[in-house]
Amino acid sequence: MSSFFYRPKLPEPAPLRVLGDTVDIVLVGLAAALVSVMFINVLARAFLNIDIAWNTEFGEFCLVWATFVGAAAAARRGAHMRISELIEAVNPRLRRLLEIITRIGVLILLGLLVWRGMLIVNRTMDQEMSVLYWPVGLQYLAMPVGSLLTAIFVAYDTTLLLRGQTAIETGVEP
Amino acid sequence: MVLIVICVLFFGLALMGMPLVWSLLLTTISTIWLFGRFYPLESIFLTYVGGVEPLHLAAIPLFILAGELISQGGVGRRLINFAGMLLGFLPGGLGVVTVGSSTLFGAISGSAVADSAAIGSVMIPGMTQKGYPRPYSAALVATSGTLGILIPPSIPLLVYGFVGNVSVAELFLSGIMPGLLFAACLMLLCVYKGRKLGCDPGGTRPDFKVLRTTLIDTLPALLAPVIILGGIYSGIFTATEAAAIAVVYGLIVALLVYRELSISDLPGLALQAMITSAVVMVVIGATAALAWLITAEQVPAQFSAWIAQISSSKWVFLALLNILLILIGVFLEPLPALILTAPLFIPTAKSFGVDPVHLGLIMTFNLAIGLYTPPVGGTLFVAARIANVGIGAISKELIPMFGIAIVVLIAITYIEAIPMALVWLSR
Q1: Which of A26, A171, B181, B250 has its CA 20 to 30 A from that of B264?
Q2: pTM of the model
């Protein structure tokens, strides 16, 4: 399984590595759940001509969690879509400065997402989904949790930049 | 005014290298603060989550996963064999085969980069061995890989359909004729090049027996588009359900039929697909938040009025649209470019009487050109890496292919029937 887990050239501290690996395993689990739920849905509809009522709610639940947890895994790998041409063209010192400034901006934003996200979660915890009877807040929880995980990986990357190291290999180069 | 502030903020942040998802959210929040609007942050953030919630969006991770399974599962090589049998006898045969197999692969995969990688990894070494210059092979692979997002299924068309609330089945139909037209034009170029270079004069037609064995070996791969597209158009299942079926079909073909993947490869593929999809999904969510703001501020209406001031002609509008998109396409990959601009362009296009399906196809074809426009682009990088040549050398070889792409772009923009005839028939 060694090729499955993400191991950057500069080894991550153990707690971060364990956290990142857990995120990856959860993602694979969500992928399996999503594929199964969608495929069972097609089979039931096409062959038995029935709609499984909980399917849509459970599918959306998996999709939302997979998206925000996946965003954290992407942040760990520096895989989020961005325009890097300009900062690659400027001199290394300015580039490092810009990379640090934008990351601090991102961290402030992620803080807002966690804080306000938790307010949304608290307010929707007593609403129930119409078929599963799960609290709606449990679904919205994906956003603050995913943002918190993302913030951890971005913060680690920022500390590396501040110390003058780069952990993330940027983009595809010819 | 709001639109200008939004553009300045967004491009400022994005060009500083901030990932698009966070540039979008920060732009939204800052604009609200700057204009002293009292939209609560919670409703912006709820739109961000709500933007990725609808279950039909599951088609995005599923089609990406299906693409991974199919490209890693030995399908590419078999499609190349098949195309080689059918087209290899022509002058410039290997080039024609490259285009042909990219077209076939495009009918299974919805990603241009996957198409270029799968076909290029076999065809570029093959063409080099035959005596083709590497930059030419790389340019051809980079260009014909974009057939992956024109021939259905297509992830960009799917995303455009979701973002713009346009029928995905109709969008897929609209891609078929432009894709085939573009492929045919590229094949003609290959025949001409093959004659001119003199390294690939073509061979004899294959005999029936060989053709039959190759066909049988390729059949499981060729059945995929029949099942996926046949299912969508016969109304048996939706595009999202088709994506689930494509995954299961991909699993069966890769694990049991061709046996080029084992169970232990699956977690890694699933993880990769989920990360790729999450990156796209959060941008969709963040755009939903920004779109909420620009709709509340009536920006699309103002934008339409502004364009209408320049000209009231549909033809001029389409010309402006294409020029703007080519510029955007140089900087942005098709997916983020579509997600970002569709909410603004669709209402404007409607006011000019442009069908949203036609608009989606124009946008996708146009932005696909950006994939092989130097200095940066998805298929360009993949092809350059496989061929191990510089972007500069490829650029020269790309010139005739750009010419073809622009001519086809003009044709599909102004001869509405090319993309739309099949759609009209289906309505």
Answers
A1: A171
A2: 0.86
